[in-house]
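Before a colleague's protein record goes any further, I have to sign it off. My question to you is simply how this chain folds and whether the tokens agree. I do not need a full report, just your reasoning and any doubts. This is what I was given:
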Amino acid sequence: CRSRWRRQSSPVHHHNGLFRRSPLTKTCRCWRPPRGAPGGRKRSNSSGSEMAKVHPNTVASALPKPLATAELGLPSGAHGTGEAAVLTVWKKSLLFNCDGFTVFDAKGNLVFRVDNYAAGNRGEVVLMDAAGTPLVTIRRKRLSLGDRWLVYHGEEAAAPLFSAKRHIGFLHSAALAHVTPCGGGGGGGGAYTIEGSYSRRSCAVYDARQRRVAEVRRKEAPGGVGFGSDVFRLVVQPGFDATFAMAVVVLLEQMFGSRGLIKG
């Protein structure tokens, strides 16, 4: 193209009495914005394009709220909208040198965060909201017959809300894990059973009445291409606590994930 930059014909008077040259203007019709600029072509960097698809926005979502009471798993008016909440879970922390999760709602707004520094692991995982407020803390407790995970409100160290353990049975069963409320911690809603396959991102959470209250599904791009196991959907049914549902996902990662967030 022969068209190049040109300047406006008249100079622009500066406020201090000096003259400066006019800004450059573009006259070529075939011009395109540079790569990476607004309106321009996207960069070919695969990680950057993946981030744009997984979390288009950085605004905090209004879905989760800091828990004022230990009523995880009970019906919540904040989530009882009549429609299931579909969250996108990315098994990656947005912070450098951290393991964890980043969760977005259907509009691409940040909902939950899990950021665990590899070098500073204290044997626990903290699930936070978008602002970094601790919602629940998951700690591992070793037992003689198997490991158990305890779920605490906020960053408390006493009176756990729930206890979770991996399903152990000699007969073939679809059950993966069981989550039961602890008597002294105020957890409610009865026992929950997780069935399916977490490694395949196809499992569901059932309450004591065998109602499906949440499930993990694979996520696909608009073109039908899968994101793999690191990006998946978390579907939360109306009236069920999304914080508890995400806490179950963190528990499943500790039990069946290729690399748990709790070391040792």
In short: The helical segments are 46-54, 242-256. The first strand starts at residue 5 and ends at 7. The mean pLDDT is 75. Residues 62 and 206 are 26 Å apart (CA to CA).
